[in-house]
Amino acid sequence: MSSFWTYWYFHIPNFVLAAVMYTLLGRIVLGLFVPENWDNYIWRAFKAITEPFVRFFRMVTPRIMTHLVVMLFGVLWLMFARVAYFVLLLNLGLTPVATQGAGS
What we know:
single chain; mainly alpha; 0% strand
């Protein structure tokens, strides 16, 4: 547990980016089976969590792209952000270090 708090600046942003990325991916998959205006509470939660990010990705994506393509690119951008953040911290020497187990 102390490792988590020691490297909180790595774990918390990574977790948030991963949660949004997978929620957006879930919205994409679920959206293939349900109408956009479905009133289910799970669908509304997916939309509420991901909509601010989708709006941002819409601003940086060419207007010719469909809504589905914008969301797919959003998943890719979030994945890229996670990798870029890891590489940044790795280059600064701030990433968590793996330790050998007691059996080695």
